[in-house]
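Take a record.
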Amino acid sequence: MVHGANATLVSVRRRDTATVPGTDRRRHGDVLLAVVAGAFVLAQLVLVRPWMGLGWDETVYVSQVGAQAPPSYFSAPRARGISLLVAPIASWSTSTALLRVYLAVLSGIGLYLALRVWRGVFPSRVLAGAGALFASLWVTLYYGPQAMPNYWVAIGALVCVGSFLRAPANPWGIAAGAALMALMRPTDAVWVTLPLLVLAMALRHWRLLLALFAGLALGAAQWVVEAYLNYGGLAQRLHDGSRIQGGLGWNLAVDDQMRSLVGRTLCRPCTGSMPHPAITAWWYVLPLLAVLGLLVAVRAGRTARTLVTLACAASTAFPYLFLIGYAAPRFLLPAYALLAIPVADALRHLVTAPGGGWRPLATTLVALGLAGHLAVQYSVLERTVTRSTADRQAWERTAADLHRLGIRPPCLLTGEESLPIAFYTGCSSAAVSGPNKNSTPARIREDARRIPVAHLVPAHGGPAGYARDWTPYGIDGIQVRIGPAAEDGGP
């Protein structure tokens, strides 16, 4: 490892000229990070509300370890990391509120530990500012307490990249961060670590390369083994995952991501007009501040570490901006987490005079800009939470109506939104086409003679062929066809 003025990109063990020495100052920095993490937890509990029901993808992950319903079909792109994360609660409790509180607290702890890894790489005030910027995004607040993997990929990215920049002092951190990402979303882990792998090989830092490969292998091991057991091999699972995501290939999805900023948790197909400029303004400002952060780093002697951080942010964002034909705001959470650090460095430079005092005019302008930004973020968050809560309450009402029609465990649901509604009803779900295909019409007809089966008819379509002769009912604004076993038992 090379030291001194000509240090390599990963040789940052030397004292950072902007890092404040002294035990008391380090403790003060830890307190700042703890305050940010605590505020993040509190904001989740107040703004997202623990009683918001589980979403579509959440029901898939929770059902793998919970007792509320049989395990939902687990499609090829998914990984079981989030199911392991929720198992300590979901394995014995069906309380969504308890699960939300658990995940909110855990997400705050994760943010604190991930930012703490960066001590000595960037000043504590920059890290606290970065944490506040990342934690105040509506998408971060919305997904922090949810049983979804993307936030935890972001935490793993912070741990892995921060540990890499502190090398060789923290190879265990590199491995742990890479393992966490691979456990949650293996393909995302590869994209995040790609610049680190290239850099470690180019500079022949074999210990760092070994730590990266070990972490990726450890985190992805279960996913790879499962590929050979249940999906026809690793290549087939990757192929199926690509197909389910619409086929990976060159596709400009930047505009799709911008449309999703209005609070569309899944923008597929992503059509319609662009959101109001006030909603998308921060996206235009973000790259400008990132470039300013790089210029600040050049003057402060942090060029290498900032370049590495920006490279990893760009790498993880690349497939979701240019390789898929739809968008979801949560896909970019790892990129936002990494970009927050140079952006916070840029903002600190804007408001701080050379002597350490405040620049009054710049401070006022930055404060006004951040206030407007927060107002927009929380407005989007409130609408998104309200809409999501209403959708999930509708699923609960449908489940209650199905119970009154005799659809009770053991039971099976098919058709429109059958997967999440099956979870609320306590049933299994089946599909004969699409990304969750796990059955055939003949098998469903056979099941309908043995157990209660209901087919949820699409709003703009007719019933499936296997359910045309079943008894129709209307519940909560939708049509349901009830199979013969349920009819024999009576509603």
